[in-house]
Each structure stands twice: as C-alpha cells, then as structure tokens.
Write a structure and sequence with these properties.
alpha+beta, 4-stranded parallel β-sheet, 23 strands, binds adenosine monophosphate, binds glycine
Length: 435
C-alpha cells in the first residue's frame, strides 16, 4: 500500500506510540520512548505488570486487534519487539493498514526465522560466517556428519525460542542432536537443519537500526546465556548483560559495519526487501576476525534493557525515521559514555518449568542511573504484583565503571524478592575487577 512504504519528505508529528510485546525488552523500549521529548503516550500490548495504565489487552500476533487499537488511539508509530509476530507478518499487516511500523516484514524477518535462508544470504553477500550445510532429512544430515567427521554445530532452521542450537563436543553428540531434531524435538522448526563448523572465541552482540537503506549503530553488548555462574548450566534467553562490550572497540565496530552490516543490508535490498527495523548480529570474535553466529530481526532481551538507558532523547524520532525509510531526516542519536549493567532475576525452575504466581515484594528505589524492567510479571485484580514467567524482571544500572554499575544493580536486587528468586552474581565477570 502506497502510504505505508512511501518515503515522506518530512517526519510527521510523533506523540502516540504503541510497543508490541510483553517482555522486559518491551518494558525497556516503552520506558526509553516515553522519556523522549514530545511523546505524550506509549501504549504497550500485551505488556506486563510494569506497563502502567497504557496497557492494551491485545496479543502480539493479533494484527487486526492491533490495527483497531492503533486507530482508536491515533497511534503515530508502532514498534514491534519480539520475533514471532515479525516472522508472522504482523508488521506487514500494520503497514498495509497505513501505519508507520518499526520492525521488518515477514520477508526481512527470515534473517532470524530461517537459519538456512540467512546463511545463504551471508554467503551471497560475502559476510564472514562459519561454513555450513543446509539439510532437510535425517539421512542427509547424517551423511554430512559422517563425511566431515567433526563435531558440527546442529541448528534447527526455524524459530525455536533460543533452544534450537546444539554445540556438540563430539561427533556422537552431534549425531544425537540430529536424531532428536528429526524425532520432533523442535516441532516443525527441526525438520530442516543447518549443520555448521564450530567456531571459537568470545561473543558480542551488535545492533543496527535500519531504514532499508541506511544504518545507525548502537553500542555493543554482551549477553550471558547460561543459567548458572561460571557460564554453566542450561542455555536461557539471557540472564544478564552489559554494554558497551570493550571486546569490540570503535575501530572493530566500524570493521563490522563494513564487513557484516552493510553487505547484509545490500543483500536484503537485492532480494527486494525493504528492511526497517533492528539488525542484530551475534558475532564470535575468532582468530580470523569477527564472524556471524546468527542474525536476529529484533533487539536482544536482555541486551535491550541494558542499552536503552544509554540512548539519547532522539530515540523516538530515530525509530520513526527508520519506519518511514528516512533516517537521513532524523537527528543524530546521542549515546551516553556510561557503563550499563543488567541482571535478570528468574523464577525457580527456569528455564524448564518456572514456578509462577508468587507475590513480588519491591522496595527498589529507581533513579536516573537505575531502572527496574518487568518481564514475567502480572497484576491481579487488586493491582498486586505476581510472577508469571521464567525471567521475572531485571535491574539495570549505569556508572562510570562496570564495577560501579554492577554494584548499583546488585544492591538494587537486594530490594526485590519473591519465592525462589534466582540470579547470577557474576554477570559482567569479563569486565568487573571484583568477580
Ligand atoms: P543461538 O541460539 O543461535 O543464539 O545459538 C546459541 C549459542 O550457540 C550461541 O550463542 C553460541 O554460543 C553457540 N553457537 C552457535 N553457532 C556456533 C558455532 N558455529 N560455533 C560455536 N558456537 C556456536
Ligand atoms: N539475549 C539473546 C536474544 O535476545 O536472542
């Protein structure tokens, strides 16, 4: 529809926003956007216990319901947080209804929703990434493994809520992962696999905002995927993060812009994809330079919570300009030089079977340098707060050093309690002198 993808000559009025999603990432986005000058209201849908009065009870994949809400509330800009609605074409539906939307369409979301598609794109674009084989039968996968005879990384092609990857230490382990995938371990996501050479090196996340033609880079971040201290235990959605990640300095980040982000955007355009949203590159810093481990089509969670306090008041305009394909009209995004620390408090039993429904006691005092972002929380009819998901909330803090930022985050966590609260004490161990 012409109105939705046209590139206007000026940025229109921006007062009323809708953030789609219900996690910690969306709480942080709504908080950061609500601080921008001129923004009157930020709705969150479906939101969580931290959403406040502008929480709309519309599911993140209910495009019709979201369009209805946007019309009723005269929403100027929609920001879609999670990958599932993006992959399902929710941004396309909203754009077709004439709305300005930050978030790629289903075509661009394939960067995350199909690892085989993303690998092919990287290969075509010359983006550094591990060698791979895309396979769609167990026999084919086992034949590749037998021939290569190395412990390959086994990845479900489709969205698997962060659980679709097995980094095998032995060929036998890789074989077991292949058999499990074809036995239905990831549902349909596992009927196609990508087998990949195993790389090694520290990991860092790079986030770029795209208007389909241009890119703005955000500070780098480092996530902590494992449940337990010492980076042990099962993989999770992320137990904490910090930003910026000193592993990649300004020169390194510029190199990633040229070797990864610009070629990826060009390859998307070459496929006719007008990508307006976040390109999140998960990188491994190998001896041969940065290599892409995965792309995501959205902000990381909890990296987003960590990054938002570092971004300036231009953010809302910048996201609007991306949505409208006119980043050249946006003010420059200012970025704080502070260190930002984020620690996630999860429920007992996370990630397999988190306990839910426990009352949450909050005595935390937030200020300019400390934020509380809700994730798996909800309120009962009387307004009392309960846990309702695996990752319950996150405390984020900033300081002149990572030691100061983490000290402030951890002292904040002492003011939060619920039955079975679980968090890692060693988040940021890479950059702290006391961990
Ligand atoms: P993902 O769920 O795609 O984020 O992958 C989970 C984790 O698997 C990544 O964060 C890496 O630690 C690891 N991983 C993925 N691909 C590779 C690879 N080719 N070599 C080594 N580790 C990998
Ligand atoms: N924290 C990792 C992710 O959002 O994919």
């Amino acid at each position: 529809m012409a109105m939705s993808t046209a590139r206007p000559s000026t940025l229109p009025e921006l007062q009323r926003l809708l953030v789609v999603g219900g996690g910690g990432r969306e709480h942080a986005l709504a908080w950061a956007l609500g601080r921008c000058p001129g923004i009157e209201t930020v709705w969150v849908s479906p939101g969580n216990g931290g959403s406040g009065p502008h929480q709309a009870a519309v599911a993140e994949d209910d495009a019709e319901g979201l369009i209805h809400h946007c019309r009723e509330q005269a929403i100027d800009l929609v920001v879609v947080g999670p990958e599932a609605p993006l992959a399902a074409g929710v941004a396309d539906a909203l754009r077709a209804a004439g709305l300005a939307v930050f978030g790629p369409g289903a075509d661009g979301a394939l960067l995350e929703a199909s690892k085989a598609w993303a690998k092919q794109l990287m290969q075509d674009a010359g983006v550094p990434t591990a060698g791979h084989w895309a396979v769609d039968s167990e026999a084919q996968a086992l034949a590749v493994l037998e021939q290569v005879n190395r412990p390959l990384v086994v990845k479900a092609d489709g969205l698997a809520a962060g659980k679709g990857v097995t980094v095998a230490d032995t060929v036998a382990e890789a074989e077991a992962a292949i058999r499990a995938a074809f036995a239905g371990r990831f549902g349909n996501a596992g009927s196609h696999l990508v087998l990949e050479e195993r790389l090694s090196g520290p990991e860092v996340s790079v986030f770029a905002l795209s208007d389909g033609e241009r890119l703005v880079l955000l500070p780098t971040a480092q996530d902590h995927k494992r449940l337990e201290e010492g980076d042990k235990g099962p993989n999770t959605g992320g137990m904490g993060a910090y930003a910026p990640a000193p592993l990649l300095d300004a020169t390194g980040l510029e190199q990633v812009r040229r070797s990864v982000l610009e070629p990826t955007l060009a390859a998307l355009r070459a496929r006719g994809i007008d990508y307006r949203g976040v390109i999140y590159a998960g990188l491994m810093l190998t001896d041969d330079g940065p290599q892409v481990i995965e792309f995501n089509c959205r902000f990381g969670d909890p990296e987003c919570q960590t990054l938002m306090p570092l971004l300036g008041p231009e953010l809302a305009r910048v996201l609007q300009a991306c949505a409208l394909g006119r980043l050249d009209l946006a003010p420059e995004l200012s970025i704080s030089a502070a260190c930002s620390a984020c620690v996630v408090a999860a429920a007992a039993g996370y990630p397999e079977s988190p306990r839910k429904g426990d009352p949450i006691r909050l005595n935390l005092i937030t200020d300019e340098q400390r934020q509380l972002f809700h994730a798996g929380t909800s309120r009962d009819a009387a307004g009392a707060l309960h846990s309702s998901g695996g990752r319950v909330l996150a405390v984020v803090a900033q300081g002149d050093s990572f030691d100061a930022a983490f000290a402030k985050a951890y002292s904040g966590l002492e003011q939060v309690d619920f039955e079975g609260i679980t968090y890692r004490r060693d988040i940021g161990h890479q950059v702290r002198t006391d961990a």
